[in-house]
Specification:
The protein contains four helices and 17 strands. By secondary structure, the chain is mainly beta. The chain has one domain: Porin, CATH 2.40.160.40. The chain has a 14-stranded antiparallel β-barrel. The N terminus is likely disordered.
Length: about 350
């Protein structure tokens, strides 16, 4: 067994061990959700690794992201929970305990990159939902009228300004460091649905529309975040990376924003391919839900030709004890002055998708 193959197997094993959630929104189709990497990002994601800004060409561009990430079968379980059949509804509440969460994101953004610096203005609308099913046997079956199951829905919108930079520490670019300052204006709202809230009828009949499509917000707050990252070349074709998000802890309402650290290993597999494996080293709460999240991913970047690059990978997400694994891919079309990319993550209901257009300065 070669040293490189041993490193690959060790990195994949480490990723599986971290296994446990939702990484940052893959703005500019640059992130694990779309088959890429956060630690070894392309340098165009203001929520990626700021050490990688030095890799981005002088350019400006636009991004859009839209779609869902849910625990397995979450939507169909919610539908069964509103069944008029007591046996079906009771069974669904039991399954809901193993698939209690759902998230939806819509994001837009503009960014400019020049000589290792980034200036970005983005907006994200984040809808999240956590179920707390009442599994007391005396509240199931023929006694569903006494069931106290609840759905906690959050709607959050953030307008964000990112200013950051990254630079190599040596002429050989063997080590790069970067930092990013985020200034965010958050708007937040909450809806709580109870199992017997609809005129005495059992079921969460309006949950999907109320909690995943509504954007009502009643509270506002500012957040200032500092992120940092580093990438170091251990040997030719072997790189180690580390990121730290929200290094200054802060509470936004009942969500405790604590530092979260992520590490990864990247290997060159010949002249055209790179393998990256990475994972969060700790769990942390992130808007809009007051529950800890953690994720791990593996991805492969393959240069099909000088003008086409394909990224494919998988991301494992865990929240509230329920995990889900999704595959993603991004196709990049490059010319001397333009980059166009389309990203997709397979999923239920509304698969996550994104697009990027960038032009050289």
């Amino acid at each position: 067994m070669t040293v490189k193959s041993l490193l690959v197997r060790s990195a994949l094993a480490a990723s599986a061990a971290w296994a446990p959630l939702a990484a940052a929104t893959p703005l500019f189709t640059d992130g694990p959700a779309f088959g890429g990497s956060k630690v070894f990002s392309e340098g165009t994601n203001p929520l990626g690794n700021p050490a990688r800004y030095s890799q981005a060409p002088s350019s400006y561009g636009f991004t859009v992201v839209d779609g869902d990430l849910r625990a397995q079968d979450n939507k169909s379980i919610l539908s069964d929970a509103s069944s008029a059949d007591p046996a079906t509804a009771s069974s669904a509440l039991g399954r809901l305990a193993d698939a209690p969460w759902a998230q939806r994101v819509r994001a837009y953004g503009f960014a400019g990159f020049k000589e290792g610096t980034c200036l970005a203005l983005t907006q994200e609308t984040l809808n999240g939902m956590i179920a707390y099913p009442d599994l007391d046997p005396s509240h199931l079956g023929g006694s569903l009228a006494a069931n106290t199951s609840t759905l906690d829905g959050r709607q959050a919108r953030v307008n964000r300004l990112n200013v950051g930079g990254g630079a190599p520490l040596s002429k050989g670019d063997s080590t790069s460091l970067g930092a990013d300052l985020r200034v965010e204006r958050w708007a937040n709202g909450r809806i709580v649905e109870t199992y017997n809230s609809f005129q005495g009828q059992p079921g969460f009949a309006n949950a999907e529309a109320d909690l995943m499509d509504s954007h009502a917000t009643t509270m506002h707050a500012w957040n200032y975040g500092v992120d940092a990252g580093a990438v170091m070349e251990l040997a030719p074709g072997v790189r180690l990376g580390l990121t730290g998000d929200q290094l200054i802890a802060k509470h936004l309402w009942d969500v405790a924003l604590q530092p979260q650290f992520r590490a990864g290993l990247q290997l060159d597999l010949g002249p055209s391919a790179r393998l990256s494996v990475e994972g969060d080293l700790n769990s942390a709460e992130r808007m809009p839900l007051p529950t800890k999240q953690q994720s791990a991913s593996a991805s492969l970047r393959y240069a099909i030709s000088t003008s086409a690059v394909l990224l494919v990978g998988a991301e494992r997400t865990k929240m509230e004890g329920a995990s889900v694994t999704r595959g993603g891919a991004t196709l990049q079309i490059r010319t001397a002055s333009v980059l166009f990319a389309l990203g997709f993550q397979a999923g239920e209901d509304r698969p996550l998708k994104g697009a990027t257009f960038m032009a050289s300065n």
